[in-house]
Amino acid sequence: MNKNYVPKQIFAMGGGGFSMESANPALDKYILGLSQKEKPKVCFIPTASGDSDRYIVRFYSAYLKLSCTPTHLSLFNPPTSDLRSFILEQDIIYVGGGNSKNLIALWKEWQLDHILKAAWENGIILSGLSAGSICWFEQGVTDSIPGSLTVLQCLGFIKSSNCPHYDGEPERRPAYHRLLSQGLIGEGYAADDGVGLHFIDNQLEKIVSSRSQAKAYRLEKVGDTVTETILEPIFLGS
């Protein structure tokens, strides 16, 4: 292997982490462990929530208790005009949940999509849940538009589609099946709340979970039929 090789890593969660499991830091600790640094720099990007102050405070409340150096990036109140240098100084990027459509639009306006791709290619770990999960894929199942679940064209770092909250929101599973059956979305992965999909160089390498019964799924279209294969995660609890 090339001695200069740096793995490109993405950790995409269906739900969970400090946003949804304040008393269970298993997924947050897993993310920090991916950096293999004693005190990695972690940048929270809350664009999808409109840079919610409450969300940012919750991030710091959780991550200041862990072995890391937390910071955040607000596009409504940016810390610097040089976002590229700011992002490339981090070890881990953690993207929060919220409105995925607004996230993609704002990132493209600020050229953050290109900066994050450069970060990924330089070995900075990309992670997130819900909107912060589907953003890394080619397409995602989103509730960004009120009234129905639709397909969102995302960044395409992972050559697949994604659906979060597969067990947490009852309309998710039928919507993903319907969209795939109609050819409106490509084949891909779904994740229950509490499940993280760890991709290395575009390959799914590991699945972990903070909840003992939670699962991941591979969805494919065979002829006119959608097949759903359960993917068992490694439970991070005891």
Tell me the layout of helices and strands.
Layout: E1 9-13, H1 26-34, E2 41-45, H2 53-63, E3 69-72, H3 83-88, E4 92-95, H4 100-109, H5 112-121, E5 125-129, H6 131-134, E6 137-142, E7 150-153, E8 158-163, H7 172-181, E9 188-191, E10 195-200, E11 203-209, E12 216-222, E13 225-231, E14 234-235
State the order of secondary-structure elements, H for helix, E for strand: EHEHEHEHHEHEEEHEEEEEE
CATH topology group: Rossmann fold
Q: Which percent range describes the beta-strand content?
A: 25-35%
Low-confidence stretches: none
CATH architecture assignment name = 3-Layer(aba) Sandwich
CATH-level-4 superfamily name: Class I glutamine amidotransferase (GATase) domain
Helix percentage: 25-40%
The assigned structural class equals alpha/beta
Question: Could you say how many structural domains there are in total?
Answer: 1
Number of helices: 7
Averaged pLDDT = 95
The biggest beta sheet is recorded as: 8 strands, mixed
As a whole number of angstroms, the C-alpha radius of gyration is: 17 Å
Number of strands: 14
CATH class category: Alpha Beta
| Global outline | globular
The strands making up the biggest β-sheet line up spatially as 3-2-4-5-1-10-11-14
**N-to-C terminal Cα separation, in Å?**
36 Å
Walk me through what this model shows.
- The longest helix is centred in the first third of the chain and has 11 residues, at 53-63.
- The protein has helices at 26-34, 53-63, 83-88, 100-109, 112-121, 131-134, 172-181, and strands at 9-13, 41-45, 69-72, 92-95, 125-129, 137-142, 150-153, 158-163, 188-191, 195-200, 203-209, 216-222, 225-231, 234-235.
- The chain starts with 8 loop residues before the first strand and ends with a strand.
- It contains seven helices and 14 strands.
